[in-house]
Amino acid sequence: MNIITRRNTLALGAGALAAAALPGAGYSAIPVANVEPPKMEIEKGATLRVLRPTKFVDPDETIWRQSTDKFVKATGVPVRVDFIGWEDLRPQTAVAARTGAGPDIVVGWPDDPHLYTDKILDLSELADYLGRKYGGWYFLAEKYAQKWGTKTWIAIPMGGSSGPCVYRESWVKAAGFDKIPNDLEQFLKLCQALQKINHPVGFALGNAVGDANAYCNWLLWAHGGYMVDDDGKVTLNRKQTIDALKYAKEMYPTMISGTLGWGDPSNNKAFIAGDISLTSNGVSIYYALKNDPKMAEVAADTNHAHMPAGLVGKPPESALILNAMVFKHTKFPNAAQQYLRFMMEQEQYEPWLTGCIGYWAQPLKAYAQAAVWTSDPKIAVYKDSCANEFWNGYKGPITAASGAATADYVNVHMFAAVASGSATPEDAAAEAEKRAQRYYKS
Amino acid sequence: MDVAAPALILRRRPEAGRLARLFDNKTFLICACLTPAIGLLVVFLAYPLGLGVWLAFTDTQIGGGGEYVGIENFVSLAHDPVFLKTVFQTIFYTAVATAGKFALGLWLALLLNHALPFSSIIRAIILLPWIVPTVLSAIAFWWIYDPQFSIISYVLVDRLHLLAHNIDFLGTPWHARFSLIAANIWRGIPFVAISLLAGLQTISPSLYEAAMLDGASPWQRFRFVTAPMLMPILAVVLTFSVLFTFSDFQLVYAITRGGPFDTTQLMATLAFQRGIPGGQLGEGAAIAVAMIPFLVASTLFSYFALSRRKWQQGEANE
Amino acid sequence: MSEAVAASDGPTILSSESRIRRVVTIYVPLACFLLVLLFPFYWMTITAFKPNEELLDYHQSNPFWIAHPTLANIKKLLFETDYPRWLLTTMTVAICATIISIFASVLAAYAIQRLRFRGSNYVGLAIYLAYLVPPTILFLPLAELVFQFGLYDSPLALILTYPTFLIPFCTWLLIGYFKSIPYELEECALIDGASRLQILRRITLPLAVPGLISAGIFAFTLSWNEFIYALAFISSEEKKTVPVAILTELVQGDVYQWGSLMAGSLLGSLPVAIFYSFFVEYYVSSMTGAVKE
Question: Which residue ranges form the domains of chain C, and what is each CATH number?
Answer without folding.
Answer: 76-292 (1.10.3720.10)
